[in-house]
From TrEMBL:
Keywords attached to this entry: Cell membrane, Membrane, Transmembrane, Transmembrane helix, Transport
Transmembrane segments: 20-44, 81-102, 123-146, 166-192, 213-237, 274-299
Keyword Cell membrane applies: yes
All residue ranges annotated as the ABC transmembrane type-1 domain in the record: 77-295
Family: Belongs to the binding-protein-dependent transport system permease family.
Subcellular location: Cell membrane
Record membrane topology: Multi-pass membrane protein
Protein name (record): ABC transporter permease subunit
Keyword Transmembrane helix recorded: yes
Top-rank lineage group of the source organism: Bacteria
Location, primary (coarse class): membrane
Length: 307
């Protein structure tokens, strides 16, 4: 055991110049991620900005109980879970499918054009994307309404962002469109690392392209898929904030759009209930850590895990 520790220290010392490059990232995480964690004490206090952390009275789990007993609790949890599951079920496999399709494209120029067009939306802020979507769905010369009317599917323009039944579909579709191209880059890089002799041997054996995808491509990139699936499950309760806040500006949509993040923002910032909002946010964080640990435990059985 001592010899193992000594060898590790020796290896670290020999790589001191490389290890030094990690220090700024560690400092960044420590300053902006760990030091602010002191603020979770507010969840167990009747926090007052005038009294501070030290003088605010301790109330135990009072704010957690208030959150669980709130009339809107089950609505918020339903919206959070439904939106998160939809994003996971549709948004997670979509980049994999795009990467598999692009990998089969033989024309390099066309492939690069498609890649560029598909990952450019990732670099647009949600303010721009939401404005684009709102403009397309507008009842006043919105392209979607014009198209549907031209096809005689509807007789008059619909205000899609005022109809609760359409909100989840609009939100998920917008998120997939924004991130599908950028997320597929990782899978394309993993596919590029597959030994081409495997495909040649499969072709000689008479395997079709579809068969090669299921027998070679997908198993080869499965470690990457598993790692990303672990992270996605860990973020299951992170239904979104910016996209929902911008697309669900209409109060009519609150029953289908209000999730934990937007609820914490509305109650904590707008209503200045800091302790209550901190308790709600801490509840989500604890559940997320549990989901991450559980997903990693299950993935470890396949030989691919984060730790």
């Amino acid at each position: 055991m001592l010899q193992t520790k000594t060898s590790r220290l020796t290896r670290l010392w020999r790589q001191w110049d490389i290890q030094l490059m990690v220090v700024p990232a560690l400092l960044f995480i420590f300053v902006f991620s760990y030091i602010p964690m002191y603020g979770v004490l507010m969840a167990f206090q009747d926090y007052s900005i005038f009294k501070g952390f030290l003088n605010s009275p301790w109330v135990g789990f009072k704010h957690f109980e208030m959150f669980f007993q709130a009339p809107e609790f089950w609505t918020i949890m339903r919206n959070t879970l439904v939106i998160s599951i939809l994003k996971l079920g549709i948004g997670f496999p979509a980049p994999i499918l795009l990467a598999l399709i692009l990998n089969e494209v033989g024309h390099r120029t066309f492939k690069r054009i498609v890649q560029t067009i598909s990952y450019l939306p990732h670099f647009l802020s949600w303010v721009i994307v939401s404005g684009f979507v709102i403009s397309m769905l507008s009842t006043d010369n919105g392209s979607i309404n014009i198209l549907l009317q031209a096809l005689h599917i509807i007789d008059e323009p619909l205000n899609f962002l005022s109809i609760p039944e359409y909100f989840w579909a609009i939100l998920v579709a917008t998120g997939v469109w924004k991130e599908i191209g950028f997320a597929s880059i990782v899978y394309l890089a993993a596919i590029a690392g597959i030994n081409p002799h495997l495909y040649e041997a499969a072709a000689i054996d008479g395997a079709s392209r579809i068969r090669q995808i299921f027998a070679i491509t997908l198993p080869s990139i499965m470690p990457v898929i598993i790692v990303f699936s672990i992270l996605a499950i860990g973020n299951l309760l992170n239904a979104g904030f910016e996209d929902i806040l911008l697309l669900a500006a209409n109060p009519v949509l609150r029953d289908v759009s209000d999730v934990i993040e937007t609820y914490v923002y509305r109650v904590g910032i707008n209503n200045s209930r800091f302790s209550y909002a901190t308790a709600a946010g801490l509840f989500k964080a604890v559940i997320s850590v549990g989901l991450l640990a559980g997903a990693n435990y299950l993935a470890r059985k396949s030989g691919n895990s984060l730790w």
